[in-house]
Amino acid sequence: MDKIKLEILGLSSSQSQTGSFALVLGEENGTRRLPIIIGMFEAQAIAIEIEKIIPNRPMTHDLFKSFAQSFKYNVKEIVISDLKEGVFFAKIICDNNGTATEIDARPSDAIAIGLRFNAPIFTYESILSEAGIVLTDEAEEEAKEFKTEIVASSTESQNTALKDYSMDKLNELLKEAIDNEDYERAAQIRDELNKRN
Asked: CB–CB of 51/158 below 8 Å?
């Protein structure tokens, strides 16, 4: 069965389920979208990794990465492998010195972990055919506006997170942002430092 590569297009509050989020995956070089409803914790874990926010303490998915690397496991890919009665299933495909291992997981956890390993995300044609949505030009335009809103709200959450850091940590993050030529992030950190002086 041929796999279809997906990319993360957006993450937003679910209008159908309170306290849940919609993770929208898109077919690479295609028009189909695969929306998956996920929990708040997993949405936060995905957003933090997408935005490269460094939490004060490792989150569960960061712990998984450290644990896996300690035992020489690497995550090669994430596969949205099945859809049964409206519930998605996923596999984390790991490699340990040439030996492949499949680990059953919820798609939200698998994607949060896969992001930390820069692993690609895939699914099968049968799943995209059953649960995928084809966007019209009008819906595509709305999706672009929606993506802009996500970036704006994620910047707000970054600024909120900056308030939780010590002065030393902020100075360290500022140096890192400048070294990486991430001047927008550096400006946010500088603003937070200025508020405290």
From this structure: yes
The answer to whether the predicted template modeling score (pTM) of the entire model surpasses 0.90 is no
Q: pLDDT-derived band of residue 178, with 50, 70 and 90 as boundaries? A: confident
- For the chain, list the strands marked E by DSSP: 3-13, 20-27, 32-39, 74-84, 87-96, 99-105, 121-124, 133-134
Report how many domains make up the chain.
Answer: 1
Q: Is residue 195, in this structure, part of any structural domain at all?
A: no
Phi, psi (deg, nearest 5) at residue 64: -60, -45
Alpha-carbon span 178 to 172, nearest angstrom: 10
Q: In which region does residue 52 sit, left (phi positive, over 0), alpha (psi from -120 to 50) or beta (all else)?
A: left
- Domain that residue 106 falls in: 3-135
Q: What is the pLDDT of residues 12-53, one digit of tens each?
A: 876 666 678 889 999 988 889 999 989 888 988 898 888 888
Taking the C-alpha atoms of residue 61 and residue 46, their distance in angstroms, rounded to an integer, is 9
